[in-house]
Amino acid sequence: MNNQQKTHARYFTSEACDVDEFKLLIAQTTKLKALPHASDVQKNVPIYDMTKLRPALEDTISRRDILGEWAEVLLSGAGVLVLRSAYSATGVLDQATSIYESIIAAEKLGNAGSGDHFAAAGTNDRIWNSLQKLCEQAPDVFIRYFANTSIAAICEAWLGPNYQMTAQVNLVHPGGAAQLAHRDYHLGFQTAKVSATYPAHVHDLSPVLTLQGAIAHCDMPVASGPTKLLPFSQAYRPGYAAWRRDDFRAVFEEQHIQLPLAKGDAVFFNPALFHAAGANSSTDIHRMANLLQVSSAFGRAMETVDRRKMCKLLYPHAVAAQKSNTLRPAEISAAIGATAEGYSFPTNLDRDPPKGGLAPETQQAYFARALAEGLDFQEFSRHLDEMAANQLP
């Protein structure tokens, strides 16, 4: 496939991805002189000193200049930036760390063997929905933790106002393994098969719906495994189709960079950037980061719909239509698509973990599976109720 065909592709396929084109794209260089608000560039990543920039965020004109520069970096520049001293006083991080450690201990007692979603049980620890859990445990700490104008500004720079904050704590112990290179939510949380069903323009849209970030709760030298990053890789349009390929992952492993972080620093990146948590090869650093996944305000439907009730009403008719062949499979699928929830998120990942992939089973997938397995109405209805209960906060 030539470059013109790639540019105008209607769908992206793994087979059509060109690793040589990818290599050319990531060979770009970040120039400090093109970024008037950056204090430094390290390994192509712009560094912003928030001790100097924070006051400028209070002025409307200078704020827009800074936010515009950040958005450009995330979209068409390196795709990643660091906010040095995002927390000028780190005492609140220490308080939050203590609370998070107590949550981890309590959750281990209540749910033995649970842990991080990419590591073997016991290697790392993960707190799903650390946002709400911190607020419930210590609202006084929570308000000071998120009363952070630097964090708010970078979220607005990428997503605009009225964004929706979520967070998950990741604690990687010494010896914790590295992740494989990947892209992130939304399309990055779909299987390769599902991702390929989305048209090319949705691949372009997905990255601007979320912002990825990590707040360092401790000093993170490279030995502790800070995030491995591949600057400029977010600009490779078919990247959601490419990131699972061995040759693309090999390029990532050859050319990725890692930056040491100090407690109170924050790194933010375009979710389409190829990245992976690093291996903690230290002997004494328990690497804790609060991973922020911030969503656009626009990722919501206009009306509230009781889709669970609709599924229950439709199921007996779908069963009858399947048995009598009065509707073709494609027609039944279309009816399910108009009825059931087709997306896994938002959910409560403590009770509703991923199943057979990166995302929990959707109502639509369950509806189709129930038909295929011949579940009776009582079982179908019971499991729908269980799914709904598992999604509650």
Please give the order of strands in the largest beta sheet: 1-2-3-8-6-10-5-4
CATH level-1 class of the largest domain: Mainly Beta
Report the average pLDDT across residues: 93
Outline the biggest β-sheet: 8 strands, mixed
Can you identify the CATH superfamily of the largest domain? q2cbj1_9rhob like domain
Q: Which topology of the largest domain does CATH recognise?
A: Jelly Rolls
Count of the domains? 2
Strand content: 5-15%
Instruction: Give helix % range.
Output: 40-55%
Order of H and E elements: HHEEHHEHEHHHEHHEEHHEEEHHHH
> What is Rg?
22 Å
In angstroms, what separates the terminal alpha carbons?
A: 47 Å
Number of helices: 16
Based on the structure given, which CATH architecture of the largest domain is correct? Answer: Sandwich
Number of β-strand runs:
10
> What is the molecular shape?
globular
Instruction: Enumerate the spans where pLDDT stays under 50 for 5 or more consecutive residues.
Output: 1-5
Q: What structural class is derived from the secondary structure elements?
A: alpha+beta
